[in-house]
Amino acid sequence: MTNEYNPDGKEIRFIDSHYKDLFHIPDGSCVQIHYPDEMVVKPCTFIDEYHTQIGYNVFHICQFAEIMERNGASYMPEPEIMGDEAAWKVGKDRILAVQTCEDGYDYTLLDENYNEIDGGQVDNPELSMLEVRRDILESFGLERRELRAMFYEDVMEQAFEVGRQAVVVNDPIAELAFKLDRFAENFDPYDAQASAILFQPRCQRRVPRPGGARGAGPRHCRCRQVYPCRDFRRGVFHHGTGSGMGLDWGCP
After folding, report:
1. Cross-strand bridge partners of residue 219
2. What is the per-residue pLDDT for 250?
3. Which of 12, 96, 111, 138 has a beta carbon 3.0–4.6 Å from 143's, enabling a disulfide?
4. How distant, in Å, are the alpha carbons of 178, 179, 185 from that of 172?
5. Residue 166's pLDDT is what?
6. Sign, CA torsion 129/133/134/139
């Protein structure tokens, strides 16, 4: 966003109440304010050497310092995000979640009830996560709103549950599809416990044949699927393998 008040790209100066310089931040970036009971991130815009727009309000730089001092708050430049994912409450009624992907960043914009408003991808891995966040917020006219950090996993978990409830009302097939999608997203093939469950060798349980099958007594199932066999629970017959013995009962 171009700032008509700052064609030369001057930085924003922050001072304490005694006019001592504390730090400078680039025009358009954010200040992180630590109040006694919460932390808030506010976007800043250069007005002139002595005035800065912080959020929706314009302050004299000394006025801002005095207000922070009276409220027992400290302030600092917002640090860069080093992780692969982050989420923020945007104002009172929006939530933004961002994560890295192979081509850049994926984002999801939600309302205050975790209903998805929009989602997409920013195909520019050279941008930092803070730069991507600023671009996304500007595209929705939310760039002036104050931000509060949230836990990405909690946000996406809640959004998933809200989406599931909206889709699967009286629709068990849709609910199963959601569960399978969720499993696929969270499954880690390198997790030892998950791999032990899903990739055990051929089932060795001895189960009786159905009444019409040749031969007597229990035998090993001929199903070649990974354990546990899904068809067994549905009572589906598997074709025999190796001895031409017709149909065998599915494995557990």
Report:
1. 207
2. 42
3. 138
4. 10, 11, 20
5. 73
6. positive
Angle of the 172-186 helix axis to the 152-167 helix axis, nearest 10? 160
* Residue 249: per-residue pLDDT: 41
Render pLDDT for 20-58 as a digit per residue (tens, 0 to 9).
999 999 999 999 999 999 999 999 999 999 999 999 999
pLDDT at 151: 97
Beta strands 85-90 and 94-101, pairing class: antiparallel
Nearest to 53 by CA among 125, 123, 141, 144: 144
Q: Say if strands 94-101 and 104-111 run parallel, antiparallel, or are unpaired.
A: antiparallel
DSSP lists the bridge partners of residue 106 as 99, 121
Terminal alpha carbon distance of the chain:
62
Are 121 and 183 in contact by the 8 Å Cβ rule? The answer is: no
What does the H/E/C string look like for the chain?
Answer: CCCCCCCCCCCEEEECCCCCEEEEECCCCEEEEECCCCEEEEEEEEEECCEEEECCEEEEHHHHHHHHHHCCCEEEECCCCCCCEEEEEECCCEEEEEEEECCEEEEEEEECCCCEEEEEEECCCCCCHHHHHHHHHHHCCCCCCCEEEECHHHHHHHHHHHHHHHHCCCCHHHHHHHHHHHHHHHCCCCCHHHHHHHCCCCCCCEECCCCCCCCCCCEECCCCCCCCCHHHHHCCEEECCCCCCCEEECCC
pTM score of the predicted model: 0.67
Tens of pLDDT along 151-176? 999 999 999 988 877 765 556 676 67
If you average pLDDT over residues 60-79, what whole number do you get? 97
